[in-house]
Known about the structure:
Number of helices: 4
Strand content: 15-25%
Number of strands: 7
Strand order of the largest sheet: 6-5-4-3-7
Helix content: 25-40%
Shape: globular
Amino acid sequence: MEISQPQTRRAMTTPDSLRAFVERLVSEERYQRDQGFWAFRSGGSCAVCTDSAIKIGRHFRGTVFGYICAINPGAAIGKQFCEGHDFAVIDNRFLVDYWAFRVIRLITDPVFDLSRKPDTREVIRLYGDPSTWEELAFD
């Protein structure tokens, strides 16, 4: 599975460093009583997949991809959960999804290694056809 993105990294990214960052996001979760939702201490909603995907993408200089469920009907993360879904891809190798891991608890590990066939098969089952994924711009 090829997903193009810049390869400007300072240090090697590992699955463990990605998982540690997701756990850092978990530690930032705070319930905003006045607004009635869970938010990250550093800003953004825990319940919005785009917010966590951008945090991961920024931290690791990765790319955020997303899809519209109606255009990607084969994705298991589909209409029963949302109208669309966003996630991070790091180093053109790791798909990282805080939201599916923490919010809907559909996955037990937030990191998929796209160089491993079992992970690639699971990514296609969960996230559907990669040709339907669109890159999201963020600063």
